[in-house]
Amino acid sequence: MRTILDNLTTIVHFKSDFQDLKQAWRREVLSGFWVFLIALPLSLGIAAASGFPPSAGIISAIIGGLLVSRISGSTLTINGPAAGLIIVVLSAVQALGDGDPMAGYRYTLAAIVISGGLQILLGRLRWGQVISAVPSAVVHGMLAAIGLIIIISQLPVLVGAPLASGTVLHKLLSLPQSLAQGQLEIMLISLVGFWLLILIPLFDNKLPMPLIVVVAGSLFALHLSTPANALVTLPEHFSASFYTPDFSKIHYPAFWEAVLSLSLIGSLETLLSAAAIDKLDPQQRRTDLDRDLSAVGCGNMLAGAIGGLPMIAEIVRSSANVNNGAQTAWANFFHGLFLLLFVALFPALIQTIPLAALAVLLVFTGYRLTEPKVWGQVYQVGQAQLVVFTATLIGVLLTDLLLGVLIGISVKLAVNVMHGVWWRNLFTIHFEISTPEENTQQLTLKGSALFSNFLPMKNALVQLPKAQQLKFDFTQAYLIDHTVMEFLHHFKTSYEAQGGQCEFIGTAWQKFSPHLLAARLMTADERKA
User: Whole-model pTM?
Assistant: First the structure.
């Protein structure tokens, strides 16, 4: 019965999609074109930095646009390769290849296929909500660590020096030697790229900066007669870019470490990006996170099967999509279609792009993930958030992404225990929903609402009738952490936008910082009352 209902829902979804296309195809085509201008250079750069052929990024972006856009649970997100997975993919290539990049590439493709299947399973089991409940301080710490690793790994490319392999610490210690081998003409291309990224947005922030940096870099590379090994390389025919996965290392622990890292980190980034774009949607539509996760899993299985990078719902391209006026998933489709047409018609132009120009884009992306403003925003929410953020960042740098995230979550749980949360309340929430009067719903929370226990409450709230009076009674509550405060804030905004009203009862709270969404702890006087 569930399969039949899912099929009927899909048919209705497709009919609705085609009606949307008829009404606003010009707007969707235009937004898709602008996103394509951003996606092309970023897809190439992410692939090269991941130890994959540059064409692998294009393959992934095309599949993300043409396939995933048709089956996803989101409306405005753009699917494709992302900088956040560079470290996972590169680590897999190096660990599985044993010094042979092409062999590591094909083993990693196999890991991508299986990780995609795992994402489909997680989506069908409705684990999308569970994964999306990871504390924001852990996520930001993970992304900041990824940003630092990207910068460290791409600095040699900026000067035309060979890449160093090994751990993050080894790459950092090797930087002076690598930079000493730099080439002056490559440095000039990188310098021009950085100046463009800094100066042009001061006058016009709507231009596709990745494309401008790449075009400028190509012109300089042509004028300076840059050697071929410093340029993007593609096969003469794009069909030669397709490779099949090699599953012969499926019994190796490193293979399954890659599978888990790709599926869990990729799922986390996808769900967080989708939730972030929902907040930018002028129509306040909500993504079906479980369906979106399964759709990305389908895309990853196909991408891994033919030689592509893993994909996620990517935040930068998705934000550009919203800003360009897109209102349906057709913009994602057209961005993939434009990529396919470009590589089919103009492959020679891609081979004029210097790797240094792509490295500029990646270093700039890495900086945006870990810039001082990020640290300041985390600190504003509370000192405990900064502790969790820092623990996650250090954990990722010293171990790997999965262990670093687990370290961050463990520190967050320890912080909650230190604040007096009962052990049995860490993973179990106690609340009641009643109807005290007509058209009024009341949620009464007893104890603490935390990232680790609030999903039952979240699901109950989402299922409440719309356009009613909704009261949150927190007089018997103890601690509400930042993750739950953030959810309640956005739920209130969405509920009231649909004609309802929300009221919070219980005022004797000690905030952990002046931030609107800081964690709150009931004061001692109120607990005695």
Answer: 0.88
